[in-house]
Amino acid sequence: MTDCLFCKIVAGEIPSQTVFEDDDFFAFRDISPKADTHLLLIPKKHIVNLDDLQPEDEALMGKMMLTVPKLAKQENLEGYRTITNTGAKGGQEVFHMHFHILGGSELPGF
Ligand code: AMP
Ligand code: ZN
User: Which of 13, 50, 89, 91 is the most exposed, fewest CB within 10 Å of its CB?
Assistant: First the structure.
């Protein structure tokens, strides 16, 4: 999608602090970190949010979940929080699905 911030980051049109990339996913540091470590993991495929998922995305989502602990290990996180905001009323500001991965310090209660 041409007008999507995170698609532009995947395409390298907007710089990011990349921490991981494979055929399906891209991960980078959040520009406004809410914890010592704050990563964003996104599929390269433009999916708006969880509500936009289709049955054919089942395997991709399984792989995305398995990528989370891989990134946490790479960042040496002992514990972490994974959040995905869905829809404006769910706090979503960038409409390309992403998992926030927060850690590196003790996180406040939720
Ligand atoms: P959300 O509110 O769940 O849609 O989260 C969007 C996240 O994207 C926020 O935590 C922002 O700080 C982050 N963000 C926005 N622009 C950039 C950018 N250019 N590079 C990295 N993170 C960004
Ligand atoms: Zn996108």
Answer: 89
Say if strands 25-29 and 18-21 run parallel, antiparallel, or are unpaired: antiparallel
pTM: 0.97
Confidence of residue 66 (pLDDT cuts 50, 70, 90): very high
Is residue 16 in contact with ligand 1, taking CB distance under 6 Å?
A: yes
Closest to 47 measured CA to CA, from 2, 7, 78, 105: 7
Q: Positive or negative CA dihedral for 25, 26, 27, 30?
A: negative
Q: Is the CB of 30 under 6 A from ligand 1?
A: yes
Going by their DSSP bridges, the two strands 99-103 and 37-43 should be labelled as antiparallel
Q: Which ligand has the minimum distance to the alpha carbon of residue 8?
A: 2
- Ligand 1 touching residue 32 (CB < 6 A): yes
Q: Compute the radius of gyration of the chain from its Cα atoms.
A: 13
How far, in whole angstroms, is CA 47 from its chain's centroid? 12
